[in-house]
UniProtKB/TrEMBL annotation:
UniProt-listed InterPro entries: SAM-dependent_MTases_sf (IPR029063)
Keyword Methyltransferase included in the entry's annotation: yes
Domain of life assignment: Bacteria
Protein keywords: Membrane, Methyltransferase, Transferase, Transmembrane, Transmembrane helix
Sequence intervals crossing the membrane: 35-52
GO molecular function (one): methyltransferase activity
SUPFAM superfamilies in the record: S-adenosyl-L-methionine-dependent methyltransferases
Pfam family for this entry, one: Methyltransf_24
GO BP, sorted A to Z: methylation
Coiled-coil ranges from the UniProt annotation: none
Protein's UniProt name: Class I SAM-dependent methyltransferase
Length: 333
């Protein structure tokens, strides 16, 4: 090991001097001086060895501390790398989620754009069609008290005229309507005109059910049409839990000739109108007619597709700009 420090160099010089003096004393016959010099020399050598041992121990401790520091640094770097990997995976998942959300929103926006464009393209003739439909409807209820407005949340005049035509053609004995309001009043008038027809409307909103009941009373239609408050309950459809009218409110209705699906509202959940046919399929007689309103909307189109695949219904014809007519042509699958 090289002696690099001033103290170590001084000790080495002193040891060399003592060696020389002790050697001279021994050569000149001065044994006492030689022994004394040898003892001092041994002492300095021992001191030098102890100093070197101490420095080795200090160096060893310093090395261990350095090794510990290096290990901690390596561990910290590994932890940082793992953390970065986790954050990287999280950021990737977040990025994928955001991309999927953007795609969904873009598709929904595209759908709304198509619907808006379609509706705008019909503005030049739809108002005329609605007026024409009203002009054909009003003579059918001459002398009636003021009628509730059509359109908006209610069925359009064209759909109401189409419904009246279905009642006249099919002469159903029992009509079940999902949802109530203006259409219930017009169905009541159609039922009276045809004769032998019973209209039962389901309504999940108690206040709205009372309002429809009052309208039927004002028009003197309670003998042919009624509205029943049927709160939304959990139902199982195709293995999924959904919300639909309490079908227990139809316990006395065993056979349905005409089913009008105009509720529940879209705001109550996705595919809100899908359960109508699966839950009532056993009561739909062969050849029964189903009318679906708002058939241009994505949820309603999906419900129509499933009904055609699983419930023995076939799309027969459009009823109006918004509604379609289906018929049960075979037993449900």
């Amino acid at each position: 090991m090289a002696l690099a420090t001033p103290r170590q160099r001084a000790l080495a010089a002193l040891v060399a001097l003592l060696v020389v003096l002790t050697g001279l004393a021994a050569l000149t016959g001065r044994t006492g001086w030689a022994l004394a010099g040898l003892a001092v020399l041994l002492g300095y050598v021992a001191g030098l060895l102890l100093d070197l041992r101490h420095r080795q121990q200090v160096a060893a401790r310093s090395q261990r501390r350095l090794e510990g520091t290096v290990e901690q640094a390596v561990s910290s770097v590994a932890g940082l790398h793992h953390l970065l990997e986790q954050h990287g995976a999280g950021l990737t998942a977040l990025d994928d989620g955001l991309r999927a959300l953007v795609r969904e929103e873009a598709e929904a926006a595209a759908g709304r754009h198509r619907e808006t464009t379609h509706r705008l393209s019909r503005l030049d003739y739809e108002p005329v069609n609605e007026v024409q439909a009203l002009l054909q409807l009003l003579p059918k209820v001459q002398g009636a008290v003021p009628l509730p407005p059509v359109g908006g949340w209610a069925l359009s005049a064209g759909s109401l005229l189409g419904l009246w035509d279905v009642v006249e053609r099919e002469r159903p004995r029992t009509v079940v309507e999902c949802g109530s309001g203006t259409s219930t009043v017009w169905l009541g008038y159609a039922a009276r005109a045809v004769g032998g027809v019973r209209v039962v409307a389901l309504e999940h909103n108690a206040a709205y059910a009372e309002r429809t009941h009052a309208l039927l009373g004002e028009h003197g239609l309670l003998d042919v049409a009624e509205v029943r408050h049927a709160p939304l309950v959990d139902v199982e459809v195709d293995g999924a839990t959904m919300r639909w009218y309490d079908a227990g409110r139809l316990e006395d209705v065993s056979s349905i000739d005409l089913l009008v699906v105009d509720g529940p509202p879209k705001s109550t959940g996705p595919l809100a109108r899908l359960p109508a046919v699966p839950l009532l399929r056993e009561r739909l007689r062969p050849g029964a007619v189903v009318v679906m309103d708002d058939a241009h909307r994505p949820d309603e189109r999906e419900a129509l597709r499933r009904w055609s695949l699983s419930d023995g219904l076939e799309l027969e014809r459009p009823l109006s700009r918004d509604a379609v007519v289906l018929r049960r042509t075979s037993p449900s699958a």
